[in-house]
Amino acid sequence: MNREYTVSDFRTVVDTLTALVPGMQIATDIICGFPGETDKDFAQTVSLIKEYKFSQVHISQFYPRPGTPAARMKKVPSNIVKNRSRELTSVFEAFTPYNGMESRVERIWITDIAADGIHLVGHTKGYIQVLVVAAESMLGASAIVKITSVGRWSVFGEVIETLSQIDEKAASNRRISSQVRWDPCSNQDDSCACSNDPHCGTCGPESCGGEIALEESRVSRIDKLLEDRSSRNLMGWLLRKRKNHVHKVENDIALGSMKKQECVGGSIGGWDVIDKALLGGMLFSFLTIVAVIIHLGYRTPPSK
User: Fold this and answer.
1) In the prediction, which pLDDT does 106 show?
2) Over 90: is that where the pLDDT of 12 sits?
3) Across all residues in the chain, what is the average pLDDT?
4) Which are the contacts of 78, defined by CB distance < 8 A and separation ≥ 6?
5) Average pLDDT rounded to a whole number, residues 244-255
6) DSSP conformation class of 69
7) Is the per-residue pLDDT at 191 higher than 80?
8) What's the burial of 81, exposed, middle or buried (CB within 10 Å: 0-12/13-18/19+)?
9) Helix, strand, or coil here: 154?
10) Burial tier of 291 (Cβ tally within 10 Å: 0-12, 13-18, 19+)
11) For 137, phi and psi rounded to 5 degrees?
12) What is the pLDDT of residue 206?
């Protein structure tokens, strides 16, 4: 499949992510019946899935995509592919990844409306799907929820607090507090001139510079936001370039193999333009050498 990693690399990535972000949900894709897959290969795949008990596994049966090298490889019998797919699906669906989450308090980000039209869909930091009953106005908001029950594919919760509303109140309080603190300096008619009277009790140097410090803080936050956005864009660009490169390599392999088959199929004796040009160049060089030798032979003086 031209995968550029091994099972050991896969384990390293999964173990590192789960250690750094406890509770992270990791999904993986499994293709059953890829050409050349043996019973031992499939057994090792099942063992790996059982070991990590992934909460999401996307299982599919191999389908030969036209033009790819795999499409010309010897296929695993379809009945074996179907049996392997059923076995792996039954193993995966037997997992209960969310048991023990009842009564836990989690922060979620609400992004969508569930298919039943009743619940809103939110996700925890680890991307666990949480369904809550709430107004559609909460779409895009962050909330603190208490998990009430768990299912196979998601958990259910009730909203305790909406963090966006709390954040707005806190921001409003900070603005009011800032205005009260800096009012003495903002009054142009005040008899206290901070720059001239260092002993003024109602207006200290840190208050006079408060507005400047606040503005610098705002600029710093904006710069950081733009930097983070640029970093995300760069990472996305690199991933797209990587994906395009892999697709190009696969296409080149398939195209080269097809040309090779065409050559073996009946055009071995054919000459293309490049071959003719090379042959012509070699013939011209040979004739040139012969002409030079003959010319030198005529000019050689007779021996005495």
Assistant:
1) 93
2) yes
3) 75
4) 33
5) 58
6) G
7) no
8) buried
9) coil
10) exposed
11) -65, -15
12) 43
Residues with Cβ within 8 Å of 241's Cβ and at least 6 positions away in sequence, in order, are: none
Confidence at residue 190, expressed as pLDDT on a 0 to 100 scale: 44
Give the DSSP letter of residue 300: S
At 207, the pLDDT band (50, 70, 90 cuts) reads very low
Report the distance separating Cα 95 and Cα 23, nearest Å: 16
Query: Which residues have CB under 8 Å from 106's CB, separation 6+?
Result: 124, 128, 130, 144, 145, 147, 157
Nearest to 215 by CA among 180, 172, 178: 178
**8 Å CB contact between 69 and 254:** yes
Pairing outcome for strands 155-162 and 142-150: antiparallel
The Cα 134–Cα 31 span in angstroms is: 39
- DSSP 3-state helix, strand, coil percentages of the chain (rounded to 5)? 55, 15, 30
Spatial CA neighbour of 65 closest among 246, 235, 250: 250
pLDDT tens digits for 55-70?
Answer: 889 999 999 889 888 8
Rounded CA-CA distance 195/200 in Å is 10
Distance CA 59, CA 70 (A): 18
Higher pLDDT, 247 or 5: 5
| Residue 219 pLDDT greater than 80, yes or no | no
> DSSP assignment, residue 70?
G
Closest residue by Cα to residue 111 from 89, 134, 94: 134
DSSP H or E run through 206: helix 205-208
Q: What is the DSSP letter of 2?
A: -
Pairing of strands 129-133, 155-162: parallel
- Which residues have a Cβ under 8 Å from the Cβ of 105 and sit 6 or more positions away? 144, 145, 146, 147, 160
132 exposure class (CB count in 10 Å sphere: 0-12, 13-18, 19+): buried
